[in-house]
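User: Hey, my collaborator sent me this sequence without any context and asked if I could get a structure. I don't really work with proteins. Can you help?
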Amino acid sequence: MSIIDRLDAEWDFDGFLGRLRRGKFSPDEGDGFLEFIESIKIDDNECIPKRLVSLLWYLPSFLNWQRVRVVECGGDIDKFDGFITKTHNALEKILGIP
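Assistant: No problem. I've predicted the 3D structure and written it out in structure-token form, which is a compact way to encode the shape of the chain:
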């Protein structure tokens, strides 16, 4: 499965991010998702497909918007906030910072 296919699957209703839309946060699933994100390597000179960029750059905003849902569903907000920070840091390593 390609990186884009895997990310698309995570965004689907039954994927990790799809479950987050419904306020369902599992720290273990979050760790697995983060491992996947951290495994993404892009060479400095590599052209990045537009679809991959769209699937990645939207993550920080999306995760922050889900905080309310996670709280409403009784999720551990401290662990979720840590997950958000780790995801943001991983994206900085993948895409760089301005």
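In plain terms: The mean pLDDT is 95. You can pass these tokens on to your collaborator as they are.
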